[in-house]
Amino acid sequence: MGEAPLAIVLAAGLSTRMKSRTPKVLHSVAGRPLVTHILRTVRAAGARPLVVLSKESAAARELFDEGTRLAIQDVARGTGDAVRIALAAANGDHGVAFIVYGDTPLLRPETLTRMRALVRERDAPLVLLAGEVGTDNAYGRVVRDERGDVARIVETRLATSEEKQLKESNLGAYAADLGWLRVAVERLRPNDTGEIFLTDLVAEARREGKRVAVHLTDDPEEGIGVNTRADLATAEAVIRKRIRDQHMLAGVTFRDPESCQVDSDVRIAADVVIERGTILEGKTSIGEGSRVGPYAVLRDTTVGERCKVENSTLEGATLEDDVSIGPYSHLRPGAYLERGVQMGNFGEVKNARLRAGTKMHHFSYVGDAEVTQSSWSCSCWSCCLSPFSPCSRRARPRSTRSGVRSSSRSSRRADVADAARARWGERLSNTSPPSRSLSS
Predict the structure, then answer these.
(1) Is 74 exposed, middle or buried (0-12, 13-18, 19+ CB in 10 A)?
(2) Range with top average pLDDT, 95-99, 394-398, 403-407, 419-423
(3) For residues 95 and 424, which has the higher predicted lDDT (pLDDT)?
(4) Strand 330-331 with 96-101, pairing
C-alpha cells in the first residue's frame, strides 16, 4: 500500500488525575510502560512512530530506541497543536498518518490497518475510530450524515439530551492523508481556553466538502484510555486477559485463568500447565511440558522442558530440563540449576550453580558456590563472607552428602571431600584439610 505510514503518538499529557510524580506514560501495564503498548501496536501495523512528549513526560525518552523519532510540546496548547509539532518533525513523510494516544494500550494493529485502507477506499482524507461504549461516558458523540459519514463530533458537555443518547462515540484514533493533514492542521484555531482541539479536523474537512469516514470497532475496549489509577487497573485487566487467551490458543493450560498474571513479554511453550495463583513477570520463558504453580512467582526466569515449580519464587534464575523445585523455595538472581536437579521445600539458591543430578532437599541454602551431584538437606549452606575479595567457587565432589545443620563458609573458598558426611552442628571451613573425612 505504498510508503509505510507515519504514526503520531500523543504522549504529552500532564497526568494530573493520576496523582503521581511519575509521568503517566511510564506507569506499568502488564510488565511494560504504558506508552510501549501503543508503540508495539503501531509497529505491528507497519507504521513508523513519532512520539510527542511534554517537558514533564520527557523522562520517557529512555524507553525509545534510535528508530523512534521524538518531538517536544513545550507548552500545552491542546492535541491539535501537538499534531502540528509532530508534522514539523516529520517534514519528509508522505502517504497516511495515524494519530493515536499514548495512553490507549488496547488498540489493535488490525484496526489501524483497516482505517488506513478506508482512507483510499472512501476517498476520505480523515477516518476516525468509533465504538458503541454506552451513553454514560465522556466521549464525544459521533453524528452521521445521510451517507453514513461523520457530520460532526459533539463534545459531551455541549451535547443535547438527544445527542447524548447516540450509541457511537469517538474513541480518539485517526487515520489521515498526510498531504491534507499538513494543510488542515494549520487552519485550526484555538478555542476560548486557548487550546487547539484535534476533533476540529472533522469540521475543517466538512467545510472543504471532504468526506470523513468511520471505522466502527466490534471491540469497544480498544478505546479505553488511562486517565486515573482506576482506568489503569481496567486496561491492565483487559490486556492480561488477552495475554492469557493468546497462550491458551497456543496450547497452554491455565487451571484458573483469572487468578493468574502473565506479563506481555513472557514466553510459554505448548503443553505447559499453569496452576492457580501463579504470577509470571518480565522476560520469563517456560519450556514445553513444564508445570508451574500453584502460587508460584517467576520473574525474568528461564525454565526448561518438563520442569516442575511448586509454590516457590524464582528471580533471574535458569532451570535446565527436568528440574523440580518446591514447595516454598526461593531462587535468587544468578541461580543456575542443571538438568535433573531436585530442590525440596524451604531451600534457597543465590548466584550459584547446582550441577546435573544434584539433590538439595529441605531447609538448605547455597550461595556463591558450585555443587556437583551432591545430596543436601537441612540447613546446609555455602557462601562468601568476604566483603573485600572474591570467593573461589569450587565445585563440590560427586557423592557428597551433607547432613543436618551443617555449613560450609569461607572468605575465599569452601572445599568438601569425597563422600564427606557432616554431622549435627559440625561446620566445614577453609581450615579443614582438603581430604579430611568428617564422618564419625
Answers:
(1) exposed
(2) 95-99
(3) 95
(4) unpaired
Question: Is 362 noted as a catalytic residue in this protein?
Answer: yes
Q: Could you tell me if 204 and 182 are in contact, meaning their C-beta atoms sit under 8 angstroms apart? A: no
Three-point CA angle 133, 136, 138, nearest 5°: 85
The alpha carbon dihedral of 220, 226, 228, 231 has a sign of positive
DSSP secondary structure letter of residue 397:
P
Residues 232 and 35 sit within 8 Å (Cβ to Cβ): no
| Predicted structure pTM score | 0.85
Using alpha carbons, select from 300, 372, 285 the residue that is nearest to residue 331: 300
Rounded CA gap, 298 and 282, in Å? 8
Q: Where, residue-wise, is CATH 2.160.10.10 in the chain?
A: 242-429
The CATH number of the structural domain formed by 242-429 is 2.160.10.10
**pLDDT per residue as tens digits for the range 404-423:** 444 555 443 344 433 333 43
Q: How far apart are CA 199 and CA 372, in angstroms?
A: 67
Options 27, 215, 330, 362, the catalytic residue: 362
Each residue of 360-383: pLDDT tens digit?
Answer: 988 989 999 888 877 766 656 566
- Cβ-defined contacts of 266-271 (< 8 Å, 24+): 266/31, 269/305
Radius of gyration of the chain (CA): 29
Q: Which residues of 181-193 are buried (b: 16+ CB within 10 A; e: fewer)?
A: bbebbeebeeeee
* Neighbouring C-alpha atoms within 13 Å toward the C-beta of 27: 24
* C-alpha 359 chain-centroid distance: 35
Count how many Cα atoms sit within 13 Å of the Cα of residue 54 in the half-sphere of its side chain: 18
- Are 72 and 89 in contact by the 8 Å Cβ rule? The answer is no
Helix (H, G, I), strand (E, B) or coil at 429: strand
Domain with CATH 3.90.550.10 in the chain: 6-223
Name the β-bridge partners of 302: 285, 318
What CATH number was assigned to the domain covering residues 6-223? Answer: 3.90.550.10
Residues 6+ away with beta carbon under 8 Å from 415: 394, 428, 430, 432, 434
